[in-house]
Structure formats: C-alpha cells, structure tokens
Specification:
The strands form two sheets. Strands 5-12-11-10-9-8-1-6-7 form a nine-stranded mixed beta sheet. Strands 3-2-4 form a three-stranded mixed beta sheet, with no helix packed on it. The protein is of the alpha/beta class. The chain binds S-adenosylmethionine (SAM). The site of S-adenosylmethionine has 24 residues, from strand 6 and strand 8.
Length: about 325
Amino acid sequence: MHGHDPTQTAAANYREFAEDARGRSPAYEALAEAVAADPGVLRFLDSLPPEKRQPNLLFAAARYLGEPPDISALRALVSRRRADLEAVMLARRTQTNEPARCATLLPALAQLPPPLALIEVGASAGLTLLVDRYSYDYAGHRIAGLDPQAPVLHCAPSGPVPLPAQLPVITWRAGLDLSPLDVTSDDDVRWLSCLVWPGEGDRQERLAAAVAAARRDPPAVHRGDLLTGLPALAARTPADATLVVFHSAVLAYVTPRGRRQFAGTVRDLGAIWLSSEGPGVVPGLPVPAYQGAPFVLGLDGRTPLALADGHGQWLQWLDQAG
Ligand SMILES: C[S@@+](CC[C@H](N)C(=O)[O-])C[C@H]1O[C@@H](n2cnc3c(N)ncnc32)[C@H](O)[C@@H]1O
C-alpha cells in the first residue's frame, strides 16, 4: 500500500508516494510532490481519519469528481468543493483490482488437484477470481481462456515457472470483501478506473476488457471481513473440490495481529492458502532476496514460491521451490 503510514505526517507520506510513482506515473509523481508542499491541501488531509489520507484515495477521488490530476485542480476542489471531495474519500476505498495478477497466480493454481473451489479474500470487484476466463501469454507460451473475448494477460516468466498446458478446472468461486465493488454498476466501474494511475500503459484498456468479460457472468463477491467471514463462506464450497483461499494486495491493509489471526483461520479450514503480498506482510512466510518492490507468492504461509510484479507483468519462480 502506498503512502499510508499513520506514524508519518501526510507530507512525508506524499513524498514517499512521489518516489514510488517515479518512472511509473509522471503525473502522480508531480502531484504528490506538490501536495507535500501545499499547506492548504495538507490541512484538509489532516482533517480526515488517518486511513483516509492516502495519495491514491485523494487522487482517485479528484478524478472521480471530474478533475484532472494536477495541483491547481486539487486546490480548487479543496477550497470550493471540499464537502464533495470529503464525501467521496470517506465513502470509497483504495481497492484497485488488477486482473493481470491472475497471470502470477495461475501456475501455482494449475499444480493443485482439480477441480478447484476458489475463495478470494479482498476480492474488490472479483476480477482476479476469473482466472480461467482470461487467456495468457508467457513470453510465447500461450494458454487459451474460456472467454475468447476476455483480455490476453502477458507475463514475462523467469526461473523454473511451471507453466501449465491448460487452465485448471474451477467449479466454484466466491469473493469476500469489506466493501465489494459491483462490476455491473457503472459508478463502481468508474471508481475502479479512477484507481488506475495515469500513464500506466495498457492498464485502463485491460481493466475495461476484464470488466466486459466479468459482466457476461459476474462473480459473486460477498460483503464481509476476512477476519470473520471466511469459515461461513468455506462451509458453502463443494466437498469434491480442492479449496483454495487466496489474496493479493490485501493483507497490508490488515494489522499485524489481524494477519496472524487470519493465518490461523485459513489453517483451521485445511484449505490451500495462496498469498501474493509484499515481502514480510504474510506472517511467518520467509522473505526471499529481492530487488525493487515485488510481491512474494506464498504457499500455505510457509513456502515462498516466486517473486511477482505487483501488476502481474513478470513472474520469477524461485529455484528452491522447484
Ligand atoms: C488493493 S485491493 C486488491 C483487490 C484484488 N485482490 C486484486 O489483487 O486486484 C484490496 C481489497 O481488499 C479489501 N479489504 C481490505 N481489508 C479487508 C478485510 N479486512 N476484509 C475483507 N476485505 C478487505 C478492500 O476493500 C479492497 O477491495
């Protein structure tokens, strides 16, 4: 999660975010630097609950209100439409849903005994639940998805990635989220699109194509907390399928104590647990050597399988995981 450390001042968080955005989104880099130096916008941020001061939330809210991501538009919003801006920031969450992350999950899922029943916690709109609808291209190794109109996800593999010949059979799937987004709601889809950073290549197009695919057969995403809602959902899964509980870019939003509690809950279910989170986020999962800011793909909270790009663009399988 970017720039949300509650122990730091808003200015420090926005400066840190600017560094994250460097080379990825020039517009957001410049905007975050400008906010860090703007007393008026910083005062507005300080009036919000700490978890609502994140750059991603502020910038997406401004765009949702029809403004471009620049500091003069933001200043004008804060002085003239403060109540509107505050309302969006209080009502909405940063819940970016990146379908391309499926490309980093697929090789691990395809190694499990089929058929699979999938539960995704922190599923947002459920686009990462649709692993078998998309097609894949791992540097020329292609796998056809069930929906020929769904996007092709490109992912650069390295190391001994167990690239599957075909997709796993998924007979049941459901998501759980504190605040599910509805792929059939234009408003929710607009929010999802505002969460994609400006200048990030083909992410907007991929999101639109994934939403169109999801609308043809929307995934069920239930409202609930991953700390409490999992056992009831797991009880609904078919007995003859391998139950997989997975999540990506979610546990950073949960306190360290909550993460330990969640780990205990998944283990009690006897489910396969696939995690894709920043290094050190999953309790007890060893952190492999890494550079940059990747995700670690973990099995059962014990075995790091791979390093993965946070947006699914590459997957580096670890040698020791075979
Ligand atoms: C950054 S999004 C990631 C969405 C999706 N997993 C992906 O990789 O594209 C994080 C999601 O986790 C959800 N979330 C955060 N804390 C949660 C909790 N305690 N219980 C359930 N969902 C939670 C948020 O509402 C949000 O939709």
